[in-house]
Design brief:
alpha/beta, four-stranded antiparallel beta sheet, 11 strands, binds pyridoxal-5'-phosphate
């Protein structure tokens, strides 16, 4: 027998073992399970014990937290010449999880970054095993049906007609926003603009605290971020509809087309929810007044707030989930706005935020599938695709390849949790928010900044006790109210912005050195009445693993914030 060449031996000895065997074969499956088993055991050993109660994995060292660290990593790394065993690779990769926040841990509260549900992880893993590609149905088989099913489930939830609507998954809330922007621009300015380019200063209107995706999307579509018109805010951080209407009129007078209006359904910092029904009425009046304009496209950036639509059909009267009165009120208040999502022409939905699935999983849902004809490329531009498929989203998506993992993760979570599961998780997180604010109210020196918004997130500022002499016990609130409304306090606002940052830095130190919580800081959650940025500390509780809200949050948050305040005051 002829001797095998070296490369042939490598294929047999190494390469075969690195793929899922195409044939049913007990031995190779057993091996895969064994590697999984070992990897899960090994990575789980990085989790904290109950006694230690750390909110991060393993040890807190990060190898890329300085410029020198990054340079060193780049210098030392290279591709190995010979491959190692799978076990060896796992053993080498797992230490990289050291120091990462453990997102399911009750003390991890820095942003809208959830732990991923196991159903979503399994969906993602199964997808990884057989690698469906949603460029067209032929490349994904019935996994394409999952995309269609999730889009239809969510359509029914938000009040779209699922036969008319269409949805596809994309790389994030930003991808959905980009899709909405592109579709809106094309619909309002005309299909020709896809070939000639956009040659007019069409306007994108979004509230002052809308996500910076507005900047990316206007920039990357070639519209230019100067064409964004920020709309002022109400006290509850939602868009001021009077200012929206005035701005639209101003655009009209200037001869500029209002192309896209973005309604933010749950802002990232404060969880402000725009009144989308009201926005739609403003648009109705605008097109009624001006017969010569095209109706602006309404995009709902609902990546966080969409989840409240899980309460569609919930009877708040009988309240079968036994929500507390406070939680019921808070949820109902948000739901009352979210229930009108269907007036939007397209909606962005992040499963990887309030859907608790692993990254990335975002759906962009379009109310009228016919709109997509505007975006489709011609067949001869994509000659190698779409010869045999009925379902061909790749004809109009920005992406060519799109992983089947996107809908797999979302679908498995939706099926597992169901309405009751999601409602219970939302209730849990809202209860945590309520408890935290109650504690803040009782604590001297802390004031909640987004009292009128009822997501999970609480924004707060802290003030030194030296102010007590001037104002008495409620000094934090009184000082903040002056800073918010009265320009005479502009210097104070700037000075105490720095105080927030100092406390945030101290809290960060406590996280790693004294097992404190992981909170965060935003330098500009909104501007004051006289236009100056307001910095804020931020607590975003997002775990189903808390015992007693009041007791735990007192120990894990309030006590550490007080400690950090005292340290900075000195
Ligand atoms: C997070 C967020 C985005 C961006 O979504 P990604 O999934 O992170 O790309 C857009 N809008 C709002 C309101 C967000 O909170």
């Amino acid at each position: 027998m002829e001797q095998k060449r070296v490369w042939e031996r490598i294929i047999e000895e190494k390469v075969h073992g690195a793929f899922v065997n195409p044939y049913q074969d007990y031995e190779s499956e057993a091996r895969l399970k064994e590697v999984m088993n070992q990897a899960i055991t090994s990575i789980s050993s990085l989790k904290t014990t109950q006694d230690e109660d750390k909110c991060y994995l393993g040890t807190p060292n990060c190898i890329v937290d300085t410029e020198e660290g990054i340079a060193k990593v780049k210098k030392e790394v290279s591709i190995p010449k010979t491959s190692s065993s799978l076990e060896q690779v796992m053993e080498e990769v797992i230490p990289y999880f050291n120091g990462m926040y453990n997102l399911a841990h009750p003390k991890t509260m820095f942003n809208v970054v959830p732990a991923a549900g196991i159903p979503s992880m399994m969906g993602s893993f199964l997808g990884a095993m057989f690698n469906p590609n949603l460029v067209e149905q032929d490349y994904a088989g019935n996994i394409a049906a999952l995309e269609i099913e999730v889009a239809a489930m969510i359509s029914k939830l938000v009040g779209y007609d699922e036969q008319k609507s269409i949805g596809h998954f994309t790389f994030g809330g930003t991808g959905a926003y980009l899709f909405g922007t592109k579709l809106g621009l094309t619909k309002v300015l005309g299909k020709e603009t896809r070939f000639t380019g956009i040659r007019e200063d069409a306007q994108l209107l979004v509230s002052e605290v809308g996500h910076f995706a507005a900047i990316n999307c206007s920039d990357w579509t070639g519209l230019g971020s100067n064409q964004i018109r920020p709309i002022h805010l109400n006290r509850d951080n939602s868009m001021d509809l009077n200012h929206l209407e005035e701005t639209m009129e101003a655009c009209y007078k200037e001869g500029k087309t209002v192309a896209v209006i973005v309604a933010t359904i749950g802002t990232t910092d404060a969880f402000g929810v725009d009144d989308i029904q009201g926005i739609s009425e403003v648009v109705d009046r605008f097109v009624e007044r001006h017969k010569d304009v095209k109706r602006p496209f309404i995009y709902a950036d609902a990546v966080i707030g969409w989840a409240w639509s899980m309460f569609r059909g919930y009877d708040f009267e009988t309240n079968e989930l036994e929500l507390s009165d406070d939680a019921k009120k808070a949820i109902q208040e948000v739901y009352n706005k979210v229930q009108h999502l269907h007036v939007a022409d397209a909606i962005g939905i992040d499963f990887h935020k309030t859907g608790f699935s692993c990254y990335n999983s975002t759906l962009v849902l379009v109310k009228d599938a016919k709109d997509l004809d505007l975006l489709a490329r011609k067949g001869h531009d994509m000659a190698y695709l779409y010869q045999f498929s009925a379902y061909t989203p790749g004809k109009y998506t920005l992406e060519c390849s799109r992983g089947g993992n996107y809908p797999l993760t979302a679908w498995c979570n939706l099926k597992y949790f169901g309405l009751d599961g999601y409602r219970a998780i939302l209730a849990e997180h809202v209860e945590a928010e309520i408890a935290l604010r109650k504690l803040f109210k009782e604590t001297e020196g802390i004031v909640c900044l987004n009292e009128e918004d009822h997501g999970f997130v609480t924004l707060f500022r802290v003030y030194p006790s030296s102010l007590k002499e001037k104002y008495g016990k409620d000094y934090a609130r009184m000082q903040y109210e002056h800073e918010l409304c009265d320009e005479a306090y502009s210097e104070d606002l700037a000075r105490f912005n720095q105080f927030q940052l100092d406390v945030a830095s101290e809290l960060r130190r406590l996280t790693f050195e004294e097992n404190g919580p992981a909170l965060s800081y935003t330098s500009d959650f909104r501007v004051s009445d006289y236009g100056q940025p307001i910095a804020s500390l931020k607590a975003y509780p997002m775990t189903p693993f808390r015992n007693d809200h009041i007791e735990d949050l007192q120990r894990d948050v309030v006590a550490f914030v007080e400690k950090a305040m005292r340290a900075v005051e000195q």
